[in-house]
Amino acid sequence: MNAFLYGLALQWKLDLRSKTLLITCYLVPLLFFVMMGGIFTTILPGAEETLLPAMTVFGGTMGALIGLPPSLVEIYGSDIRKVYQANGVPLSLGLVLTNLSAFLHLFLMSILLYLLAPVLFDAALPAYPGHYFAELAFFLVVSLSIASIVGLAVKDPAKTSMVSILLFLPSILLSGILFPAELLPEAVATVGKLFPATWGYSLLTEQASTGEPVAPLLLLLTLGVVACGLLLRKIRTRQ
Predict the structure, then answer these.
(1) Which of 116, 129, 107 is nearest to 33 (CA)?
(2) What is the pLDDT at residue 208?
(3) Cα separation of 5 and 217, whole Å?
(4) Which of 2, 26, 69, 86 could bridge 150 with an S-S bond, Cβ 3.0-4.6 Å?
(5) pLDDT of residue 185
(6) Cα(85)–Cα(17) distance, integer angstroms
(7) 215 Cβ partners below 8 Å, 6+ apart?
(8) Is the dihedral angle over the CA atoms 34, 181, 197, 69 positive or is it negative?
(9) How far is the CA of 58 from the CAs of 31, 95, 155, 170, 207, in angstroms?
């Protein structure tokens, strides 16, 4: 347990030195929040009610899909993987530590949004904060599981960035955080339901009936865990 906690602390420090993670988990989400928060609350009546969930889903999705994969490529696409194997360290440890570290960063960013939203834009806060943060944690775990697939499946850093962006853009555009999903064509809206952001936004805003978004998120989490397990097995046999 001490070794695990030490590894987590070390990964946290490494992430703090990572420009990519700092930009995607803190800088861009907070800047987007400041700029778009002012625009939304000015031109859209009632935007204060959904501003916090919308900005949180944006930040969580960006930090997961664009921030996490490069860290995984750095481990599993380099000689670090061989060091793990040579010293008998489970290959899954790198995946677990990077996910936990990214989760902590994204959760901290979400807390900052929670504190700033009512101060800067008079945004509404959830009626039940404990319930809200539990749902937020669930959404972040699902998003990170999907992002982990990219980091494990794509070995080239340049290709990783491209794939991450290709997943991030439709996640945000089709999730309903920028404009109501009801305005989208039915086929396009259906595609949007393949991404965690759509269900995460629905869950955090309580737009759906109680528990409705949970089942799709659980399915995505299951697919993410299974896919990561298969990819780790493939990496283990790679020379």
Answers:
(1) 116
(2) 47
(3) 28
(4) 69
(5) 86
(6) 25
(7) none
(8) negative
(9) 12, 23, 26, 12, 17
Q: CB-based burial of residue 116 (10 Å sphere; 0-12 exposed, 13-18 middle, 19+ buried)? A: middle
Which burial class, exposed, middle or buried, applies to 29 when counting CB atoms under 10 A from its CB (0-12, 13-18, 19+)?
buried
User: What single DSSP character describes residue 25?
Assistant: I
Helices (H), ranges, the chain: 2-17, 19-22, 28-43, 51-62, 68-76, 80-86, 92-121, 129-153, 157-173, 186-192, 196-205, 214-236
Task: Please tell me the distance from the alpha carbon of residue 69 to that of residue 179, in angstroms, as a whole number.
Answer: 28
Q: Give the separation between CA 230 and CA 171, rounded to whole angstroms.
A: 24
Distance separating alpha carbons of residues 190 and 180, to the nearest angstrom: 14
Q: Which two tokens mark 43?
A: 């031109």
Q: Please list the pLDDT of the chain residue by residue as tens digits (239 residues).
A: 555 554 556 565 656 666 777 888 889 999 999 999 988 888 888 889 999 999 999 999 999 999 999 888 888 876 666 666 666 667 788 898 889 989 999 999 999 999 999 999 999 999 899 999 999 999 999 999 999 999 999 888 889 989 999 999 999 999 989 887 778 888 988 999 999 999 999 999 875 445 689 999 999 999 999 999 999 998 887 65
Cα(160)–Cα(150) distance, rounded to whole angstroms? Answer: 7
Please count the other Cβ atoms lying within 10 Å of the Cβ belonging to residue 1: 5
